[in-house]
Amino acid sequence: MKPFLQQVASVFYHTYKEDLTDFCFVFPNRRSGLFFEKYLMETAQHTFFSPTITSISDFCASHSMLQLEDKMGLLFRLYGIYQSIANKHETFDSFASFGEILLSDFDDIDKYLVNAEDIFQNVKELQSINYLPDYLTNEQKIIIQRFWNNFNPEPKRQQEFLATWEILFPLYQSFKDDLKKNNLAYEGMLLRELAENGIHASYNKIVFVGFNALSKVEKTLFLQLKKQKKADFYWDYEGEFVQDKTNKAYTYVAENLMLFPSQLKFEKEIIGNKYVEAIAIPSSVGQAKQVHQILQHLGIENISTETAIVLSNENLLLPMLFSLPNHIDKVNITMGYPLVFTPIKELIDNLLALQKSANTNTEGKTFFYYKQVLSLLSHRYIYNENNTNYQELIKKIHSNNWIRIPALNLQIDTLLCLLFKPCNTASLCDYLIAIIGHLLAERKSVSINNSDENNQLMEQEFLYQCFIALQRMQDLLNQWNIPLSLDTLSKLIKRLLSTIVISFEGEPLAGLQIMGMLETRCLDFKNLIITSFNEGIFPKNESSPSFIPYNLRKGFDLPTTEHQDAIFAYHFYRLFHRASSVYLLYDTRTEIMNTGEKSRFINQLRYGYGIPIVEKTLTYNTSLAKTNAIRIDKTPAIMDKLHAIVLSPSSINTFITCPLQFYFSYIENIKQTDSVTESIEANIFGSIFHFVMEKLFVHFKDKMISKEIIDTMIRDTSKIELLISEGFSQFYFKDKTPHVLEGNHYLVAQVISKYVRKLLDIESKRTPFFHITHEYKCEENYYISKYKTFAKIKGSIDRVQIKDGVIMLIDYKTGSGELKYPSIGELFNGNLKDRRKDILQILLYSWLYQQNKKIDSEIECHIIYLRKMFHSDFSTQPFDSQNNTTLFNHDIKTEFLTHLDNCLVTLFDQEIPFTQTTCIDNCSYCPFNQVCR
Fold first, then answer.
1. Helix or strand run (H / E) with residue 713
2. Is 342 helix (H, G, I), strand (E, B) or coil?
3. CA-based Rg of the chain, rounded to a whole angstrom?
4. How many other C-beta atoms lie within 10 A of the C-beta of residue 619?
5. CATH hierarchy code of domain 275-335+507-617
6. What's the topology of domain 4-63+199-259?
7. Element housing 915 (H / E)
8. Does 479 have pLDDT greater than 60?
9. What's the pLDDT score for residue 806?
10. C-beta of residue 3 within 8 angstroms of C-beta of residue 509
11. Considering the domain 631-932 in this protein, what is its CATH number?
């Protein structure tokens, strides 16, 4: 296989030799020019003065007095012109999307030499006929609706809408006049100016190589140079595919060959048979892994400039780079990588969200919202695993449940002082520039070891491009002085960053080539791998937004979807023609932008041209691997830890539910990671409620409680509210600072207040009673006779009181459990789905209290489920299946201790390991269910 560019280089050198010095070769892009120069030098085999080699963009720019303006600069300038013509004020944010579509339409109009006044007059007339135009997509309608806010059949609104189209031509004309006055242009304008004024090149011969779909302005320039007898043209139209008149790839072939024939002839090359694979893969990253396998199969000797990976979807670039075989040491990336696919996007988004969430109080203190703070502190560009101060700060935010965090608490080093500094619209760009500049300087100063050199350099480039873009935005803001809100400027910054594409540099003439389809123009490869070869991606099924409807675009010979399809077809079949081994990978998943269908070109090759294709479907076993049962033997070390534990009703309940969970929680002391929560979770709600009840009765220890005392408590709502506020500070905010409860916190406080007053009302009806204490803590030893050892058991009883000579133990529960239980034995059955853990707990409290007070008196057990207090049948005493109210007397105590003893014997039996529960329902809310299931 002799590449097309090599053929051109060979025929020109052998025809003109050193006279080529006065020639200019023009290519669709710079990359093809580099390869042409390489082939020219290889053909000459000695040093000589090279001809001028350039791209069409550079060639035209070099012959124009105008300078190309960047997209954001054009948008700002267009907005200024619009404001003066439309005579109505629109925010830049609402104009931006509308303006971008106009810029695209203006560019097309100029590239195809359309009479702007004519086409905009047609657009206007079409709008007057059809007020709600069908040709607009929903997205375009939303953009116009957002901008004009007049998609409404009211006559006045309709007149305003039609007035929009009346200003399009004046806007177009004024915009171009303003650009020209400043020696600026967009690409279409520059080309049109060049074509209408006539191009005069100083070269003896200008050779245009490898073009296909020419715009009208390009045709005009080519014809002008042809008429001057300076131009020659060479088309890569070899092969049955491109020459097939039924193939869309042929769309521009006949016209180009007729208008621009070649002066020199090439020998026709015989192309051998091809090996083609179409591989279906249900994964995007899986495609990168499959490319690895293909490259391994091709072997190191075949991995050269003759092998190309063509990425139809640039998202795959980084996964592809990390999937390349280790033996490939030379890689050239000839495509851009959008900045929005890098960690920079997340960083900028978080910084903008941080400033949006900032709140400054009347004292001038700034507070930041915890979500953005934590996102920034954990971002890969910010977090420093070697800096314990960062780890401690994150831990402190979690453990203290900080929601709004004072900026001063965060500014612990230079970087964090930059990050957590409040700013306004005027200082936002400077704020971002300072942070990105600091991160860039840090990375440049760090010594790079060989293992991560490429990653470090890549991150530096990401930061540098972001830095340059932000400086450009700052320059534009200073130049145009457009009033913007913080929210609008944030959107503009995101919009600007979304347009930035990182250009990678590699060894263009050596090694494996990775590129996009447009970068393959004029190039040929022996081994070709194309990823994301899906219908809808290759070719794309979307067209650029436009305010010019399809029928007008067609009538004025502007590009349409057919134009795009023809370009894709040509690029593919031209590239396919000289390849020997072709691998077409496509994703079988159905997603938003992916139909899961293979590209139409696969079926065209098979059924239209009879190309044998080996089809493969790769599948991944997604079934969950069977998890081996976890068994923790009770080693001497574990037994030592077990004997040191002070058991509680909660830990005993945990052991009954799942011995393995008990091991993780109490033997290894593995705790759930603290996390900031804005909602008031059940345990915090319960802690605040307990705190309030305890404080209300704190001065009545060992005293008789009358109805009057309780009623006084109910009436003193200010004290209840004060205690609730103190409870919030202690258990939720975790500080001693008084907090004004707002929003959800206020509503929760009202619920707690309602519960407190309702419980007091219930207690009022039970008076008189003797209040012994609140939050009674006790600890006792339980003798396990089988092992002649003691187990320590502790408990904290919510309330103890005496009524009519009977001791009452009361336990508050924030939930809504059941008081009925089958039997004492079932309380210890870990396989029972709805085991009454609360009843086991109150019975254990009863035993603890008897032991602690050295009494044998009967005890009434009461569980107050707060959510049930408002029910008409509200009760508090547990009862068994025979409806017998549970009184902790001798019989109940004997039965209870029998089962408790069996439970503790199992726990302390060294021969019985800690194992998983066999009841899957027990795993639903277990913090360790990801470990063993």
1. helix 707-715
2. coil
3. 39
4. 10
5. 3.40.50.300
6. Rossmann fold (3.40.50)
7. strand 914-915
8. yes
9. 95
10. no
11. 3.90.320
